## 1
Amino acid sequence: MNFMGRRIRVSRYATQHAFGIALALAFGPVMLQGIDSGSQVVMRELRGQSLSHSLIGTDPVRKLAVYLPAGYENATVRYPVLYYLPNPLAKFDHNFYSGQVRELLDRAVANAGIDKVIFVAVDMATPLGCSWYVNSPVTGNWEDFMVREVVPYVDSNFRTLAARDSRGIAGDFMGGYGAIRFGMTHPEVFGTVYALHPVGTGSGIYTMYSRPDWKLLTSINSLDQVKDSPFGPIFTSIFQASVPDVNRPPLYIDLQAHPVGDAVEIDSAVTERLRENFLLETMIGKYADNLKSLRGLRFDWARNDANQDHVYSNQAFTHKLNEFGIPHEAEEYNGVWGTGNWGMDGRVYTEVLPFFARHLVFEESSTKARRD
């Protein structure tokens, strides 16, 4: 059914998510039954020159997991590529990509959910969690790393269809933010975008300045102290990406606010820079034509997220896209973020892969995307 222009689905997952959480707590991640498909996951490390001069000691050596479909080694054909930005708060785990992800993709191909595709997952986490996928003198040039190093590396080392029409990008949570942002800034590289429950799409119910511990941030002596505050790492990472200041160690940020007694004084100029550089809603007008050029754009969010800022901002984001006439799909689903994305009933299998199956070009001679 439709609600405020969004497709709302009450899925089998929605009625079983509590049971699924209990299983996950008891047994860990649910793994799919393996099938002997002949696919493989290759783990690589890439030294990013774009990341070699950060002020906070970002490791320039990054991990890549590359899924190669069955028959890749003995074939001569080229394949489309789906890039995936995982939630940087989760560990970049070899076993996950060689096990659960591989088996899910195998089943999707076997069940005609998508044709054979190369799947590339990239570790883009900083010491505090998220790079926010932008160029920053503090954390490194992540945008350049992805566009100028990762994509060319994959195209040079694997048999890819090296064109934007055959190249998609997806991401989860903060990775979803990155997927949309890359679609905004580099539609010549990524032609199709899917964001799972993105954050940072716009203003939430709470103001950004109400979250950080400003007394801590104004008196801090080391980067590690940030981790003593519940919101310290995530907001510091946002500030390092969006309002960096190379002359203010150890955090190297401009402060959006300062404590004045029991009150907080807001710096209007820093706040304006923060909004312009961070919130995706503020960039829609600038990148509207880029977004309109995409073959497909879709994002979703869980209605029952404990942080209703994410629900509110995504609801507003789809309306703002509509104001600029940007074609897209947006879905608010009945569930809780962070459970059920991976698995036969998960959104990657039921929503993400079929979406890319409809919009990616799978053959070199194709001039149009496959349609169901």
Note: The two ends are 21 Å apart (CA to CA).
## 2
Amino acid sequence: MCKKYYRFFWGFLDKQKKWLNEMSDKGFRLVDTGRAWYEFEDCEPEKYRYAVEFVGEKSKQSAEEYASFLEDCGYRVMFKNLNLDYSVGKAVIRPWADKGGRIATTPGSYNKELLIVEKENDGKDFELHTDENDIKEYKKTVHKPWIFSIAFIIILLLILLSVNFAGALGFETKSATRIGYIGHNGLSSWSGKYHLLDGTMKKSIRPKNDTLGIEIETESGQISIEIRDAEGNIIFDESNMKTGSYSVSAPDKVSVKIEAEKHKGRFEIG
């Protein structure tokens, strides 16, 4: 009689191996696997031993050849997924993998990152790697995806921190098209002259005095400026600004947002 158990172990290969061997000790032999399930049939308790091998660094051909080699050695082998992914036609880049295995696809080597290897119990621990150098190399292979993932997360966090740090120092952030743009970004001032400005730009400014001066030159197009104080209150808001000078009381750090629509001219704030 077959029984199905739902389990998922992520990258904890030793934990998966331990559970499979515990199931064998209870009289269950693994006969099939899915994304997050294992199917067993009744067997003599402790009749089989299991090992779980990571092959995610290999190409599809290399992994299949390795599985065939293990089968030739008398083992029973099943492929298993490392991650939960039900998509079809997916391609994943693996910079840590061997040459030929750096792009995994479905169908292909994706979701076939593990081999579950079975042998009849001979009373000895079941280890596929027994040579000291072989064990070291295998551990490096297993750790590579985690190292790359952690490095990617650290780089992403550093990028986010740098953006926030730049914003805290008052550096400009933009999502605007700028043609012929010549500008200056200071802690207490901001200016730009251009042939075309289209989109949104933001910057924090800490005025030297309690008054912030604004100068606009409009040759064509539209430009609007919104200024908020440290509490987020709007202290200046002008749309479709023409050539002219403006001033606003700003005793503390302010946030300036410029919205331009095909504007040609210049601005000076400070």
Note: The radius of gyration is 31 Å.
## 3
Amino acid sequence: MHAVFLKGSPPAGRDPLSNRAAAAVMAATKARGWEVRSFALAGMDIGPCRGCFSCWLKTPGRCVIADDQEAVLAAAAGCARFIWLTPVTFGGYSPELKKSLDRIIPILLPFFTKVRGETHHPLRYPPFRRRLLVVGTRREDDVEGEKAFLRLVGRNALNMGDAEASAVVFSGDVSLADMERRLGEEPFFAEAAR
């Protein structure tokens, strides 16, 4: 099994909760024998999307910005399983993760298709169906922020070819063991264990 893990948390050591969540994700993937390509986005040179759409029109499937996002995009193109880790910021993703996700549009085509009655872009590299697990972290509980976060994950899943998505948010002083147990119960991992 192969997965791409985008760690949108601050550099190691700055956010103990995100560090524990990353360790729990890696433990869950290792327990299943998965090959995981992991990217610590905070330490990478990834510029913001220019909105030029060259990746659709001039260099199909490739971003014209030459930086560390090229490796992320290459891994994402052929990957059926994504794991994103992010501190939940006002119900959204961290700047590091958001910047990388904005630059991942080359895996989509510039055409339109209907998905659940809505207009979206089809995948450039079918025929597999993607699965997505988004792990959020918060210092303290925020019910409204978590609702917005879960809705955002669902919307991003639609934009990724109607990917099967699940999300979990860890807050406070949750232990590594509790994180590992909760991740082990996620459909993202349970489905693949069959």
Note: The domain at 2-193 is CATH 3.40.50.360 (Rossmann fold).
